[in-house]
Amino acid sequence: MRIGFIGLGNMGAPMAANLVKAGHQVTGFDTAAPMPAGVTPAASAAAAAAGAEVVITMLPNGAILRAVAAQVIPAMRPGAVLCDCSTVDVDSARAVAAEATAAGLGALDAPVSGGVGGAAAGTLTFMVGGTEAAFATVRPLFEAMGKKVVHCGASGAGQSAKICNNMILGVTMIATCEAFALADKLGLDRQKMFDVVSTSSGSSWSMTAYCPAPGVGPQSPADTGYRPGFAAELMLKDLRLSQQAAGAVDADTPMGELAARLYATFVEDEDGRGRDFSAMLPRFEKRHRG
Ligand code: NAD
């Protein structure tokens, strides 16, 4: 397939490389990042999109997505599909899909889970919103870049699934970290804590797959000084998107709201920026009640 790929940063570059590896013809554009091997550079986003059957975007936020979409939609050929894999607000996802549809294009929101490691290994999970027809067109590309793809529903459903998942993740990571800090003060050995909780009702992915305590559980960013992984500021971004969405539909999400506040403090007022989101554990370790 002929693919335009816009936004070749930490995630986009390895994803585009996997498309090249699968035999697709990829033309790329990024305002700053270098092109990965095998990707033909274009002079602009519109030039990368012209003639492509599928245009993939992997950009920092909704405002940039809207600006790029305004450039590429008029350049795309009729019937082509605009597939955004960035994590953005649900409103931007739906607005871009509506513009693409009005221009006679297919449109998908297809955010990913799995991080830079998953992007490089081709093991991402894609959660997708949009029509059956657009989904069918892009499916082989999702399979080249990931190991799991779920068609969640109409436009915006992919972003909705992503922010709900990451709201759970933010909350469970905080809960796991504060429980480890409490266990420390109660004199409980961390390995014993892991052995019990990872096989009990308090278990979650944060404990079993991404344990925030160094030297305990499988290899995780805690074992490399909390080098991200999934940076605290990206978790903050996703928690804020969840709260923006909750506000828009009048949903009561007190735990998500508190998680967003704690990550905001951690990133903006403490030493959280540039550290993995599981570095909440050393944060709680240092703190006292009240
Ligand atoms: P990144 O900052 O490394 O990459 C974004 C790229 O977009 C950059 O190379 C930047 O130069 C480029 N860009 C910005 N404006 C542009 C424009 N107008 N035209 C063309 N290119 C432009 O970010 P990333 O880590 O690759 O994340 C991309 C998206 O994926 C974000 O929405 C993020 O939330 C999401 N995401 C990231 C991770 C992760 O672990 N990094 C995991 C899941 C989802």
Descriptive notes:
By secondary structure, this protein is an alpha/beta fold. The chain has helices at 12-21, 45-49, 62-72, 90-102, 115-121, 132-145, 157-185, 190-197, 205-208, 232-249, 254-268, 280-286; strands spanning 2-6, 25-29, 40-41, 54-57, 81-84, 106-109, 112-113, 124-130, 146-153. Helices cover 49% and strands 14% of the residues. Strands 1, 2, 3, 4, 5, 6, 7, 8 and 9 form a 9-stranded mixed sheet that branches. Helix 7 (157-185) packs across helix 10. It binds nicotinamide-adenine-dinucleotide (NAD).
Task: Provide tags for this entry.
about 290 residues; alpha/beta; 9-stranded mixed beta sheet; 12 helices; 9 strands; about 15% strand; binds nicotinamide-adenine-dinucleotide
| SS class | alpha/beta
Low-confidence stretches: none
Span between N and C termini?
58 Å
What's the helix count? 12
Provide the helix percentage.
40-55%
Largest sheet: 9 strands, mixed
What is the chain-wise order of helices and strands? Answer: EHEEHEHEHEEHEHEHHHHHH
Query: How confident overall, as mean pLDDT?
Result: 97
- Globally, the shape reads elongated
**DSSP E strands, number:** 9
Hetero groups: nicotinamide-adenine-dinucleotide
Strand content: 5-15%
Q: What is the CA-based Rg, rounded?
A: 20 Å
